[in-house]
Amino acid sequence: MNSLVGFGSIAAFIISAVSLLNPGLEWDASFFDEPVMLLGFVLLGRSLEEKARIRASSDMNELLSLISTRSRLVITSSDTDSSADSVLSSDAICIEVPSDDIRVGDSVLVLPGETIPVDGKVLTGRSVVDESMLTGESLPVFKEKGLTVSAGTINWDGPLRIGATSTGSNSTIAKIVRMVEDAQGQEAPVQRLADAIAGPFVYSIMTLSAATFAFWYGHAVDCVLANLASFSLLLSMSRYYAGSHIFPDVLLNDIAGPDGDPLLLSLKLAVDVLVVSCPCALGLATPTAILVGTSLGARQGLLIRGGDVLERLANVDRIAFDKTGTLTEGKPTVSSVSSFTYDESEILQIAAAVERTAIHPIAKAIVKKAELLNLVLPETRGQLVEPGFGTLAEVNGRLVAVGKLEWVNERFQIKASPSDLMALEHAVMRQSSSPSNYSKTAIYVGREGEGVIGAIGMSDSLRFDAESTVSRLQRKGIKTILISGDREEAVATIAKTVGIEHEFVNASLTPQQKSRVISTLQTAGHHIAMVGDGINDAPSLALADVGIALQTEAQETAASDAASIILLGNRLSQATMAKVYQNLSWAVAYNIVAIPIAAGVLLPQYDLAMTPSFSGGLMALSSIFVVTNSLLLRLHGSEKSWKNSIAKISQMPAGPG
Q: Where would I find the P-type ATPase A domain in this sequence (predicted)?
């Protein structure tokens, strides 16, 4: 393509320059606008293509941005460990430094609410850490001395001093980024088709242009081929012009100039062939359709990354689901409240009062539930957070504790009997065990002078249409698989609820293990779509034949960066591919018709010939047609429900197996 564009632009410029500098030729052939138009449309196509490519890969920096750029480096003058009640020793000082400067073995302080900057082990302190983006576990995980933490996870409750075990390119997130980038380095098959056409096409057009010039300028070319050494023969034969000799009237056409110059005629027709066949439409065919399709999807809540996925989607015969944030909502919610003697609203009211200023997800869920019920929260005093265990505060003159059972029970002298506690736990868990609310844990509430008075069931709720989506896919012959980093019990319960067979359930997987599951299925000949939402899904989303990410927040997640598609409906992919092939067909058909006309096939009989400017105009119109045809995708309807978006894949013919 570059060669054809270059030859056409240079030829048009040289002829225009010669005509301008030698007015005595009376060629009237100044068309300096041609090189500008040619290069302009080619660059337009390239920019559209590059924009689509950027959407597919540049967001990988979002993964690395999850790591804090600044860290608190802890420096001590002795090797003495801090006391059990203190995170830092008395002689410790903290210096804020760039995270890139942290080395293995350095000690780092992470305060509540901050993102952990390095992989490491907890040296001192206790807290709960949100690891959902890596493990899929929606509830915070308790951390204390000796336990490992990962860069990019969030420290919720208490300060932690961490000993760095891996930093920079060796961190967990950096490894995930490399896996994603390696898996994404694939060229779109449709673009390969356009490139395969463009190569021979360019050389063919150059040959046709030379043949056009040779035909109209003279059969002396034949003499050159027969006797290259006979230059005098070439000169003597140059007065015979094959095309103009056979069709002498063509020299009367305006493009031959006022003197009927065969050289000018031949040059113009040769340039016509180069210009009219410039593969701008061919170059625009794929990127414009894909760009419009992806832009349309973005406005409808869909995000499509890269053109190749639109083809591969049709061959999907296995769909692998992550659990947290995909089949479930991905965040803890209050699903039930139970008490020995109090109303549910009273338990929720005093628990929300205690947790009102806490920042961890469970506290936020309790407060949110109270707000939804319009409960008036009493004033509290002296809130104390025990990282990983619970929160204590004074409510209406009495201490109230909210947290783990053992911790709450120890706060007060009055102890509930084991049988009462078992009955309370059974009651709150049973209320939470509906298909839409699988309870994962219970939070207990205790009051001074009474001991444990109630429990709140926390659950990660199923999406309302998860079960029907899985069922619909299975009825269409597409096998559904569940791969999750969460506990086996939680994963098995969700799988049973939505109808995924036990043999297709995989639990407690790391991001690398998820990728291996996808790779194993692909090796067996299956075409895999992966549906996920977190950082832990990023490598498998990128490795799968089609990655589908569900966004649970306003901004894109790491899964969004790695996925091929976010909430992509089958109908949109088919419509986009239809536009790609329509554009390619138009580009080919246009050249089949336009090139002979540009070469002068209508000149002898109808006295019709193109000027290079007219040829350039046709080239521009062909490109405009491609862009306009792609823009018609905007008329395509949207799919509102994620169920429709994913389950519509089932309308495609399933692949083998």
A: 91-181
- List for the chain the helix, strand, coil content (%; round to 5): 55, 20, 30
CATH number at residue 99: 2.70.150.10
Q: What is the pLDDT of residue 642?
A: 43
Tell me the C-alpha distance between 38 and 10, whole Å. Answer: 11
What phi and psi, each to the nearest 5 degrees, are found at residue 119?
-75, 140
pLDDT of residue 227: 43
Cα(322)–Cα(319) distance, integer angstroms: 10
| Tens digit of each residue's pLDDT (9 = 90 or more) over 169-186 | 777 777 766 655 554 445
Give the domain range for residue 358: 333-461
650: its two tokens:
């089932």
Please report the pLDDT score of residue 211 as a whole number.
86
Q: How many CA atoms lie within 13 A of 32 on its CB side?
A: 4
118: left (phi over 0), alpha (psi -120 to 50) or beta: beta
412 with 507, same domain: the answer is: no
Assigned domain for 231 exists? no
Report the predicted TM-score, pTM, of the whole model to 2 decimal places.
0.50
- For 614, the 3-state DSSP assignment is helix
Does 474 share its domain with 426?
no
* The amino acid at 47: S
Active site residues: 322
pLDDT reading at 353 higher than 90: yes
The contacts of residue 286 (CB under 8 Å, 6+ apart) are 49, 188, 190, 191, 194, 307, 580, 583, 584
Pair (339, 456) in one structural domain: yes
Q: What is the dihedral angle through the alpha carbons of 419, 424, 425, 431, rounded to the nearest 10 degrees? A: 140
CATH number at residue 397: 3.40.1110.10
